[in-house]
TrEMBL record:
Gene3D superfamilies: 1.10.8.590, 3.40.1280.10. GO terms for molecular function: RNA binding; tRNA (cytidine(32)/uridine(32)-2'-O)-methyltransferase activity. The gene is trmJ. It holds the Pfam family SpoU_methylase. This is tRNA (cytidine/uridine-2'-O-)-methyltransferase TrmJ. It comes from Allopontixanthobacter sediminis. It is found in: Cytoplasm. It catalyses: cytidine(32) in tRNA + S-adenosyl-L-methionine = 2'-O-methylcytidine(32) in tRNA + S-adenosyl-L-homocysteine + H(+); uridine(32) in tRNA + S-adenosyl-L-methionine = 2'-O-methyluridine(32) in tRNA + S-adenosyl-L-homocysteine + H(+). Coiled coil: none annotated. One of its GO terms (biological process) is tRNA nucleoside ribose methylation.
């Protein structure tokens, strides 16, 4: 989870400047919470705030929606932030440093003071005045023939890069069952051999040992858990039954 120890860097603030659709605000909030970000600031949302369309699109990210703060200007929204990044395409006359989401996340992680990521309206993005408030421009390499990212996609790119520096858990790892004990695997192997022996699977006899080793390697290399072993043995038992 985000660091809270005194003196440690705080997670960046996500600032949506003049967002248009409530559902897009909700999707951005969902993207934020997926990667541990909870502080959302809105600058002059077109349809006002709160917006009834934001909740359903947030898909459970209620904490972000409920705590969202509204400001009249971008300057007010980032007044307490020492590090402001404008997410936009670099213009020819810009002299500000340009960083990627990964570089920005690394900087924010070691920075002192609050950091903010600015995202512009769905159609027009950030204007020149908004960009002028930023210390750096944040952009990503993108297909020049189709350079259209929606608001939630832009937010999730930056939120994901921030999450790499945190201790968020990978659900597919934490939810994975441990491997089955060897005893269960031996039972599965024996079950296979019992069914295959009458079918001459281990014929000719001169290759029987190698065939058994290959079978064992296949069954032990899969990393079965105890539920998967039980399922496989149920399949074998069913296959051995005589048709009705």
């Amino acid at each position: 989870m985000p660091k809270t120890a005194e003196g440690a860097p705080k997670p960046p603030v996500i600032v949506l400047v003049r967002p248009q659709l409530g559902e897009n605000i909700g999707k951005a909030a969902r993207a934020m919470l997926n990667f541990g970000l909870t502080e959302l600031r809105l600058v002059a949302p077109r349809d006002g705030w709160p917006n009834p369309d934001a909740g359903p699109s947030a898909a459970g990210a209620d904490i972000v929606i409920e705590r969202a703060a509204v400001f009249e200007t971008t300057a007010e929204a980032v007044a307490d932030c020492a590090h402001v990044y404008a997410t936009t395409v670099r213009r020819r006359n810009d002299t500000k440093p340009v960083v990627s989401p990964e570089e920005a996340a690394a900087e924010i992680h070691v920075a002192t003071g609050r950091s903010a990521l600015l995202f512009g309206a769905e159609r027009s993005g950030l204007d020149i005045q908004d960009v002028s408030l930023a210390r750096k421009i944040l952009t990503v390499p993108i297909n020049p023939e189709f350079s259209s990212l929606n608001l939630a996609q832009a937010v999730i790119l930056c939120a994901y890069e921030w999450s790499k520096f945190e201790t968020l858990e990978q659900p597919t790892v934490t939810d994975q069952l441990p491997p089955a004990p060897q005893e269960d695997l031996e039972g599965l192997i024996a079950h296979f051999e019992q069914m295959l022996e009458p079918k001459d699977y281990f014929f000719p006899e001169s290759r029987a040992d190698m065939t058994r080793r290959n079978l064992r390697n296949v069954l032990t290399g899969a990393g079965w858990n105890h539920l998967e072993v039980r399922t496989m043995r149920g399949v074998l038992t069913t296959l051995a039954r005589k048709p009705r």
